[in-house]
Amino acid sequence: MTFSTKMAAGLGGLALAAMAGSGIASAAPGDAVILNSTCTYPQVIAAARAQDPVATAALQKDPAANGFLQGLVASPPGSPERQQKINFVRSFPQAAQFNRLIMSVATSCNNY
User: Taking the model in full, what pTM does it have?
Assistant: First the structure.
């Protein structure tokens, strides 16, 4: 996997921060917050930028990761579509390194 693909997958995990319920029993801790979030893309980016400007800049420069984030945020809160997107990102081990940032953004994005 190329660095760009790894970055897209990992930073795609940052997309999870966009969302904030009841996930599937096998869902990772914190997925409920992401699943039911009503944060907008600008709110997610503002929260992420405030917490990790370097990772956020990389995310925004990567068309695959940024497109995924936009699609995740655009999917309806609590929907199966959003859960599928969350599950997709969680399938990449490299996304785990962003868990702390993801949860931090997920719990603060409504403040932006």
Answer: 0.74
